[in-house]
Backbone:
């Protein structure tokens, strides 16, 4: 009995199968990186908004205190009362009043703060130390990360919060003011 034993050739993986596998892996990696990148941008947006909301809340407290110091309607206040009220906005943790001669003033006008608000003494620049005194740790207010800036309106008891670097909201462009990013939930 002669039986021939048939030997199978073990060819292994072909070059075509290898290329297809690599292409599929690259597609999956690209999708994963895109989703991860979007999640990081959205997390950054939420962090940015949260910090600005905390700054706004604390600044509104300062405005309320300033209005309390007036003791009367802003239109009926004497200059002495207004000065005392304005003093409530300065001090430790409350920022530094921006003057039109300050180097940052041209940047502020380019992001939407009027020079009349700067001249009126309604604009305050927060330092990193001011941010920490508000209770936000790890956030910087400097040239590299953008300065946080407050625009006070004592008679109307309002505050606007700005960051000079801004946030790139994708197709919506760069937004500098909290009011502009308040309703943005995701970066496109």
Residues:
């Amino acid at each position: 009995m002669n039986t021939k034993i048939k030997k199978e050739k073990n060819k292994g993986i072909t070059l075509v199968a290898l290329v297809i596998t690599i292409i599929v892996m690259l597609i999956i990696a690209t999708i994963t990186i895109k989703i991860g990148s979007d999640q990081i941008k959205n997390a950054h947006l939420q962090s940015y908004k949260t910090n600005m909301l905390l700054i706004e809340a604390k600044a509104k407290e300062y405005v309320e205190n300033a209005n309390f110091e007036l003791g009367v309607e802003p239109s009926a206040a004497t200059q002495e009362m207004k000065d005392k009220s304005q003093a409530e906005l300065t001090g430790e943790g409350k920022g530094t009043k921006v003057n039109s001669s300050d180097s940052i003033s041209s940047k502020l006008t380019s992001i939407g703060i009027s020079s009349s608000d700067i001249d009126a003494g309604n604009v305050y620049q927060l330092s990193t130390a001011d941010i920490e005194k508000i209770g936000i740790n790890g956030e910087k207010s400097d040239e590299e990360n953008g300065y946080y800036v407050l625009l006070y309106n004592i008679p109307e008891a309002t505050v606007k919060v700005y960051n000079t670097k801004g946030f790139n909201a994708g197709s919506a462009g760069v937004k500098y003011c909290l009011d502009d990013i308040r309703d943005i939930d995701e970066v496109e």
